[in-house]
From TrEMBL, chains A, B:
Biological processes annotated in GO: cobalamin biosynthetic process; porphyrin-containing compound biosynthetic process
Enzyme Commission number, as recorded: 2.5.1.17
Purpose of the protein: Required for both de novo synthesis of the corrin ring for the assimilation of exogenous corrinoids. Participates in the adenosylation of a variety of incomplete and complete corrinoids.
Reaction(s) catalysed (UniProt annotation): 2 cob(II)yrinate a,c diamide + reduced [electron-transfer flavoprotein] + 2 ATP = 2 adenosylcob(III)yrinate a,c-diamide + 2 triphosphate + oxidized [electron-transfer flavoprotein] + 3 H(+); 2 cob(II)alamin + reduced [electron-transfer flavoprotein] + 2 ATP = 2 adenosylcob(III)alamin + 2 triphosphate + oxidized [electron-transfer flavoprotein] + 3 H(+)
Species assigned in the record: Azomonas macrocytogenes
Family label: Belongs to the Cob(I)alamin adenosyltransferase family.
Metabolic or biological pathway, per its Swiss-Prot or TrEMBL entry: Cofactor biosynthesis; adenosylcobalamin biosynthesis; adenosylcobalamin from cob(II)yrinate a,c-diamide: step 2/7
The protein, known as: Corrinoid adenosyltransferase
Amino acid sequence: MTDAGRDIRHLARMQRKKAVIDARIAQAQDEHGLLLVHTGNGKGKSSAAFGMLARTLGHGLKAGVVQFIKGAATTGEEVFFRRFPDLVSYHVMGEGFTWETQDRQRDIAKAREAWAVARELLGREDIALVLLDELNIALKHGYLTLDDVLADIQARPRRQHVIVTGRGALPGLLDAADTVTDMQLIKHAFQAGVKAQAGIEF
Amino acid sequence: MTDAGRDIRHLARMQRKKAVIDARIAQAQDEHGLLLVHTGNGKGKSSAAFGMLARTLGHGLKAGVVQFIKGAATTGEEVFFRRFPDLVSYHVMGEGFTWETQDRQRDIAKAREAWAVARELLGREDIALVLLDELNIALKHGYLTLDDVLADIQARPRRQHVIVTGRGALPGLLDAADTVTDMQLIKHAFQAGVKAQAGIEF
């Protein structure tokens, strides 16, 4: 095909695509707070949530963060978003990964303390986005019960968004969610012997 | 099993897990700039890249952003990260999605202008992370050639990280990448008639 032919075919294809997309946008008029879940074994679950946090701040809205499991080392996102204490209520509640603590009763107690903080954020009308980072790990280990967690999430203000991250999201959480992304590992530099690096992994 | 039994089994399992993970961390000693690709039809490809940008800034490092396709509307991430002009070199080069422009020659010219800006960022030793947002769309449509793009990416400073986002990443890009995440759509609120909302979609 000639280059001019490709241009014309492109125009026709894009006109059809625009018609379909515009119709779908016109239909999608409902607005309410979403429950988003980022799960899977790939990289990007927490990062994507922090990217949405940046978006939220860009729109002049407030956000809350509870990190359930991480926290042994200070992360770049924590240092960065703590610079905006008027806009971001930031809470690191975990004490490292569960294979570092190795103490189930202590992990349970910590998870419950963290949930008390999350519940308070989920009750605030002035907070547009609540990020529950690595909550899936606490649920998967049974440190918190899904029924309790969902009851508090469902009782939140109507326009508030919630993002839950972590591997192994429970099926009941996926059922309750509006948007779910499964972040699949295709390959990871760590597998090739590359160390975790600032800005990328933490 | 009793609760005490579960605690003991948990301890043993976490001790084994810690041994495996610590051994893998000890082996992973190589450090160099990574090429990361976020692809797939799910939500979170760009957000995850912007989350890593926040991490990078948290570590006191500089970053560059080129948005190849988006740009018809100002996004929350753009407003937010433009607040740090000393740390973030932010460039929105596209003129909306290809189904909005419908003009292939113009899209090609815009993609080439955008790549000239990207190449300049890829040449800077002081920039720790270069985010090439929606570059995959420009590559998939043939607006840029993969060979040219990879040559510039591979010639970058040794410690610089690059993140490429967008659906339909070309196989040659995946081969060249260190880390690839396929963000799979499990469900999306838009499918249920919910409008795109500030902080979440833009």
